[in-house]
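Thread: Modeling a multi-component assembly for a lab meeting

Hi all, long-time lurker, first post. My supervisor asked me to bring a structural picture of a complex we are working on to next week's group meeting, and I have zero experience with this. I have the sequence lines for every component (484 residues in total). Could someone generate the structure of the whole assembly? Inputs are pasted exactly as I received them:
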Amino acid sequence: MNSVVKVLSIVGWTGMVTARSVAYFPSVLVRRTSRQALFTHLYQTGIRTLPVITVVSLFTGMILALQVGLELRRFNQEVYLGAAVMMSLIREMAPFSCGLCLAACVGSAIAAEIGTMKVNEEIAALEVMAIPPMRFLAAPRILALVVMAPLIAFYCCIIGTVGGGIVGHTQLGVDFRQYMASAMSIAENKDLAVGLFKALVFGLVIGSVSVAEGFRTKMGAMGVGRATQHSVIASFLMILMFGYMITRMCYR
Amino acid sequence: MSEIVFDSVAKSFGGEKVLDGVSFSVEKGEIFSIVGPSGTGKSVTLKHIAGLISPDSGTVSVGSRKIGYLFQGGALMAWLTVAENVALPLVETTSLPEKEIDDRVRAALSAVGLLDAADKYPEEISGGMRKRAGLACSLVRETDIVLYDEPTSGLDPVTAASINRLIVALNRERGVTSVVVTHDLESALAMSSRVMLLKNARILECAPPEEFLKSTDPAVMEFIAAAKGVLP
Ligand SMILES: Nc1ncnc2c1ncn2[C@@H]1O[C@H](COP(=O)(O)OP(=O)(O)OP(=O)(O)O)[C@@H](O)[C@H]1O
Ligand SMILES: [Mg+2]
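Re: Modeling a multi-component assembly
Sure thing. I ran the full set together rather than chain by chain. Output:
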């Protein structure tokens, strides 16, 4: 019973953080200093994570191609390899692996940074100076994730498809051009839109969860460690749940 | 006229009473010091004044919302330089032109003797410099009240003395109401108009320095003796 109340209060708090931060999005774009902060975070979120994202999405595509390709070969249907890989990537795997990478690389850093600021009384200092921490700290970080996540998911999709093509060409004897033609034939605007929307929601969820965990931090270095851990776990769970719900909503 | 009034304020954390029916008032323009053993709720008292926490029962009324707070660690933003930190409250909460902000920041930094460190990051300066930078942050805002949480602890005597002089100067020149939490009874007695001793969640003594020293309460006498380094 007690833990139910606790979970509900955390969910409520995270929801409030989300609402308050989203309400500050316009002012992040309007205020010069907030815009500068936004660019810094866009860079941190989008560019600094590119190496990891590239490797993850390349291997995601390669694994998909190998698994699906071996099955397709049993039925002599390798021509559809591109379509199968593209379909999985664009609908599920690209937003999913993008979300996992962002939670691990960016969300954890946000929770640790804000948690440390909380422990060092820097959040309290902002409040005393009448600077709303939600505007100053939360909004630019969350907005950067919301903007970057769909772009990164799109990038994942491209790199993953290429990775699948390489495996198809080298391991399964599928001509690369034929593979790409098959991939492009299946790619629909709706799938792309849903995939990118999913990534956008993941960005919002990861940002809010991490910021909320950071602000909840108590008790020194141990608390910061715990906040970081919780932010990653909660982001992973949320990515899975929201991923399912959006799929359920958009395809039936 | 009272600027800050505590009326039987009580506060507990997890069942442990940190403040237990504390009542006192701070007059406009005075330097009011709070002393006492570690963990008796001195910082918690300051946080009540700043509105960062609210009492479980009783009331806290504060005459002005323009409050500066010097935190125990300085509380600077790690990714901003000292000058940017000092400029932060002006940049974020006012629409002053850049030139005006620059001038005010320079004035505040020179008041705390940090002009040379203006472009350094908090990580690159010493603890004492961080405290002075924190002080500059409340200087630029021209607050009516400044709360100091152990402004001199962990500093060498020379730096400590310079911070104490700053506190007094700020009070004399601008009439800033100052509440100072300190472990340094000596300087508290030297610069304050009143000194309050907190112990076990209660006020043991609250009086002007001369009277404070003459207190007959055994616990107060013990504290004074300990502060003077007299062994029992
Ligand atoms: N946010 C909080 N949550 C839980 N307990 C707290 C909190 N803030 C303070 N306390 C507890 O209240 C008590 C008093 O803390 P406070 O920081 O006011 O002490 P202090 O008098 O400032 O001591 P010091 O001289 O060491 O700074 C401590 O036992 C502390 O554990
Ligand atoms: Mg304290």
